[in-house]
Amino acid sequence: MNSPGNPASRADAPIGVFDSGVGGLTVVRQLIKLLPQENVVYFGDTARVPYGNKSSEVVREYAAQDVRFLLSKKVKLIVVACNTASAVAMDVVNAHSDVPAIGVIEPTAREAIRLAGDRGVGVIGTLSTISSCAYSTALKNFKKDVMVMTQACPLFVPLAEEGMFDHAATDIVAREYLSQFAGRIDAMILGCTHYPLLRGAIAKAVGDDVRLVDAGEATAKAVQALLASARILNQQKSRPMYGFYVSDFPLKFNEIAERFLGRKLEFVRRVHIYSNGVIAAQ
């Protein structure tokens, strides 16, 4: 942990967030909504997206590099917005970080258990996240006898990035993936940061009686609680600073990010990933 004299332990130090691409911006959106005074630094590894179809070993390697980059920005806390990295690499993140780190799995599972009734919880996500069983394990840690149903939904990511939120094709894909859940669960975890953008199609496919659990909302609440307990909530009234870094395609990132965040981005820089794994802003 940082000492009081370390800039990263100051209340006005930024929150660091990383994701394999743009999906983690749905987490940033919830952080900005809940904690409007906090400064945020975001890294999207757009050159190596997606993490969801890569081996655990590769994701763990990338996660370590992502953490080192955020620490170079003197962040006071790291949020692993990527579900895949949260599922397979939190131990790596904690080993490489000297500030607190929060993944999306545990806060989201806790919220799902709070909302679940007798019928159980559904989990949808990338193939890697579903295969890891991380959500199933976390859910059963909170409630041993909970019934868990899972489904990988790989087509949801490109549909979200193309802005096809209310498209007939999205409804068709959602029904194909999710019809099995109807009438069998009380809550569903949107286990990929892209999925909240498709909330409408997902809700139609599973039924209005199913509570959809947004990892961004649950994680933002966990961040707020951690910062409050550590007494490093930013109380300054100055305009917050948001910095966005990507490893490729900054112009495309701008387009998608503004769609995800609902606002224009003022600061986006491309970084370079060196052969030794060091990530540095250009």
Give a description of the structure.
The protein has 282 residues and is α/β, with parallel strands linked by helices. It folds into two domains: 7-103 and 218-281, Rossmann fold (3-Layer(aba) Sandwich), CATH 3.40.50; 105-215, Rossmann fold. Helix content is 42%, strand content 18%. The chain contains twelve helices and eleven strands. The protein has helices at residues 25-34, 56-72, 83-88, 90-96, 105-115, 127-132, 134-142, 156-161, 168-178, 199-206, 215-229, 250-261, and strands spanning 15-19, 40-44, 77-80, 101-103, 121-125, 148-152, 187-191, 211-214, 242-246, 268-273, 279-281. The strands form two sheets. Strands 4-3-1-2-9-10-11 form a seven-stranded mixed sheet, sandwiched between helices. The protein is globular, with a radius of gyration of 18 Å. It starts with 14 loop residues before the first strand and ends with a strand. The relative contact order is 0.19. The model is unreliable at 1-5 (pLDDT under 50).
Q: Quick gist of this model?
A:
The protein has 282 residues and is of the alpha/beta class. The protein is built from twelve helices and eleven strands.
Rg over CA atoms, rounded to whole Å, is 18 Å
Mean pLDDT: 91
Beta-strand portion reads 15-25%
**Helix and strand string, N-terminal first?**
EHEHEHHEHEHHEHHEHEHEHEE
CATH level-3 fold name of the largest domain: Rossmann fold
